[in-house]
Amino acid sequence: MAESTPASDAAPDAAPDAAVVGEQAPAGVAISALHKAYGSNEVLKGISMTVDPGEVVCLVGASGSGKSTLLRCVNRLEEPNAGTITVADHVASDPDVDLDAMRREIGMVFQQFNLFPHLSVLENCTITPRRVLKQSKADADGEAMAQLRRVGLEELADRRPDQLSGGQQQRVAIARALTMRPRLMLFDEPTSALDPETVGDVLAIMRQLAEAGMTMIVVTHEMTFAREVADRVVFMDQGHVVEAGPAAQVIGNPQQPRTQDFLRRVLDPTHVDLDV
């Protein structure tokens, strides 16, 4: 379906105010000696790291290095085999943790948009606040419209997902997560399924969230975004943290040979070393 409203095609220029991060303070994350295996395949091999409240940490590395699994363990979409994860006041790795209470403070955006195709954009953004937070329709609609306004899609509230571009759908997914006023946002390669022309709109929204003080853990291959927005970059390989530090250091001057090799391939994909 053709787009007729220019405002719907581009992310807003103005950064959101601090209210976008919710009325509660941003949440920190602490991970210690985390292990996760699928049968004999050990995906996470003793991961330890922290994310301070309001900090943006980008996880980078080759496919299969354990980045997405780590993210899913934080939200307990995957059950860790060993180790501890603490999100704010919740011990996420505790089998008895109140998952509903913990997840109310965590927003997650996936590679795929996971929008309900039979619901409008507005309905996609209000269904969880109404069912989980028991908000009235008026309150849920008001919050949803505020978040859609932040991502530049207020005028598309009545459309269905299949009437939107991929970038617009991902921005709706971000707005939907923000309607719960999370203290922590998790992004699992949110631009990997997008056309190159729409990637920038989604990254602009994420940049604004970072500037507003949201705690964020981002799995990404967007090295420019990681360099410019992340407070720290964590390079993972084969289930281990190989190198971690300030973004300018890890991306601009990596110390470990495996990190150097990965970044050389990502930043200069046409360069191939061949043994002849």
UniProtKB/TrEMBL annotation:
Location of the ABC transporter domain = 29-263
Gene3D superfamilies registered for this protein in UniProt: P-loop containing nucleotide triphosphate hydrolases
Q: What is the lineage of its organism?
A: Bacteria, Bacillati, Actinomycetota, Actinomycetes, Micrococcales
Q: Answer whether the UniProt record assigns the keyword Iron to this protein.
A: no
For this UniProt entry, the molecular function terms from Gene Ontology, in alphabetical order, are: ATP binding
Under PROSITE patterns, the record lists: ABC_TRANSPORTER_1 (PS00211), ABC_TRANSPORTER_2 (PS50893)
Q: What is this protein called?
A: Amino acid ABC transporter ATP-binding protein
Report keywords, A-Z.
Amino-acid transport, ATP-binding, Cell membrane, Membrane, Nucleotide-binding, Transport
- Stored PANTHER family: AMINO ACID IMPORT ATP-BINDING PROTEIN, GLUTAMATE_ASPARTATE IMPORT ATP-BINDING PROTEIN GLTL
The subcellular location is: Cell membrane
Which InterPro entries does the record match to this protein? Answer: AAA+_ATPase, ABC_ATPase_HisP-typ, ABC_transporter-like_ATP-bd, ABC_transporter-like_CS, MetN_ABC_transporter-like, P-loop_NTPase
Family under the similarity heading: Belongs to the ABC transporter superfamily.
Membrane topology label = Peripheral membrane protein
Query: What organism does the UniProt record list as the source?
Result: Nesterenkonia halobia
